[in-house]
Design a protein that fits this description.
With 224 residues, this protein is an all-alpha fold. The protein folds into 2 domains: 91 residues, no CATH class; 109 residues, no CATH class. It is built from 9 helices and no strands. α3 packs antiparallel against α4, α4 packs antiparallel against α5 and α6 packs antiparallel against α7. The two termini are 30 Å apart. The model has no long low-confidence stretch (mean pLDDT 89). Keywords: Membrane, Transmembrane, Transmembrane helix. It holds the Pfam family A24_N_bact. GO terms for molecular function: aspartic-type endopeptidase activity. This is Prepilin peptidase.
């Protein structure tokens, strides 16, 4: 029962992150103002705001204008529920928990807008810096982020910011492994979809990071 309760709390946070995803780029308050449909602007009722179930019962569309809603919101709710349960069970430590939450949020922003609000990264990374240790070499990622904002390094400055935050819970070798896995995933996606446009890289970095954490968990518990 406790796990279900923690999962529900996680889905509520995931739902709130969906609000952030919509409102910050639109320069709307994330605290004030009722939730509304992004297409017809109708105010949503309580039955429309229940994480996961509201979307399933409404068949992933607005009850008023019947416009299809993005599956990103369902992804946020389910993934945050799983992350909260993983933290509750001790499968990941607090630094990993916080960083994975940050990564999921940044991934959705990067996927939709190919950018993310700097303030979100600053808030989470500030807490990470307070709860974990860093070394001088970690700050190379910040320098690269600045250079990427000035010169065309073929990788976004936001990706380097993500790597700096990741360095607070990874060794340098693990970071290189994450980058390699993410690159393979990105190239595979690029080839399959044959898109000659900029692709969001943070979702691949996040997938690689979680894969590494999962591998370490399996190795420590089943191959002692």
């Amino acid at each position: 029962m406790g796990i279900l309760y923690i999962f529900i709390i996680g889905t509520v946070f995931g739902s709130f992150f969906g609000v952030i995803l919509d409102r910050i780029p639109a320069h709307e308050s994330i605290i004030f103002g009722r939730s509304h449909c992004n297409h017809c602007d109708r105010t949503l009722s309580l039955r429309d705001l229940i994480p996961i179930f509201s979307q399933i019962f409404s068949k992933f569309s607005c009850r008023y204008c019947h416009k299809k809603t993005s599956l990103i919101y369902l992804f946020l709710e389910i993934s945050c529920g799983i992350i909260f349960v993983s933290g509750w069970l001790g499968l990941i430590d607090f630094t990993q928990f916080l960083f994975i939450i940050l990564s999921v949020i940044l991934s959705t922003f990067d996927y939709r807008y190919h950018s993310f609000p700097l303030v979100i990264w600053i808030i989470f990374t500030f807490i990470l810096l307070l709860t974990s240790s860093s070394v001088l070499t970690d700050y190379i990622w910040l320098i690269l982020s600045i250079l990427a904002g000035i010169f065309d390094l073929k990788i976004g400055s936001g990706d380097f910011l993500w790597l700096f935050s990741a360095s607070l819970s990874l060794t340098f070798l693990q970071e290189m492994i994450v980058i390699q896995i993410a690159s393979i995933l990105g190239i595979t996606y690029f080839v399959i979809h044959k898109k000659r446009v900029e692709i969001a890289f943070i979702p691949f970095l996040t997938t690689a990071y979680i894969s590494l954490i999962l591998y370490q968990f399996i190795q420590s518990y089943f191959f002692k």
